[in-house]
Amino acid sequence: MTYKGRFIPLHPKKYKGDPTGIVYRSLWERQLFRWLDSQTFVESWSSEETVVPYRCKTDNKLHRYFVDVKMTFTDGRTFLIEVKPAKETEPPKSKGRQGKRFITEVLTYAKNISKWEAAQSYAADRGWIFEIWTEDTLRKLGIKII
């Protein structure tokens, strides 16, 4: 089940963009937004405000990738973060699977790889860091997973 809603920050001045239009697309994103809003070492953050152009491996066309989160720490480091379940960061397991669902998973994974490679390059060009955060990453940061 997908969860979506509006996030209202307690510290709207930290948000770079329109703080009245913040949308989370999963409970993990909502929890991450709460964490970003509350951490004193987070100078600023935004959600889906950074757009990375990429060429998708599945259709060889140009697309736009709206990165889940951009955050800048008080020490000057900037991160682009994609929030994904760990199982979606690995190639789909075939184990004799064929059919429509497996093909969809393979195409989605290829599209994600295209996005992530472009985001890695985009971030590196700016001296930033691109990371994919899974439920394991969130737990390690002390972010409660619902």
Model description:
This protein has 146 residues and is α+β, with helices and mostly antiparallel strands. The chain has one domain (5-140): Trna Endonuclease, Chain: A, domain 1. Helices cover 31% and strands 25% of the residues. The protein has 3 helices and 8 strands; from the N terminus they run E-E-H-E-E-E-E-E-H-E-H. The protein has helices at residues 27-38, 99-125, 135-140, and strands spanning 5-6, 23-24, 42-47, 51-55, 62-66, 69-73, 78-83, 129-133. The strands form 3 sheets. It has a 4-stranded mixed sheet. The two termini are 13 Å apart. The mean pLDDT is 94.
Write the layout of secondary structure elements.
Blueprint: E1 5-6, E2 23-24, H1 27-38, E3 42-47, E4 51-55, E5 62-66, E6 69-73, E7 78-83, H2 99-125, E8 129-133, H3 135-140
Parallel strand pairs: 7-8
Antiparallel strand pairs: 1-2, 3-6, 4-5, 6-7
Helical residue percent? 25-40%
Strand content: 15-25%
Total of domains? 1
Low-confidence stretches: none
Q: List the helices and strands in order.
A: EEHEEEEEHEH
Give me the Rg, rounded: 16 Å
Strand order of the largest sheet: 3-6-7-8
Summed up, the helix count is 3
Structure classification = alpha+beta
The major β-sheet equals: 4 strands, mixed
Using DSSP, what is the number of strands?
8
Overall body shape: globular
How far apart the termini lie comes to 13 Å
Task: Quickly name the level 1 CATH class.
Answer: Alpha Beta
CATH-defined fold name: Trna Endonuclease, Chain: A, domain 1
CATH architecture heading: 3-Layer(aba) Sandwich
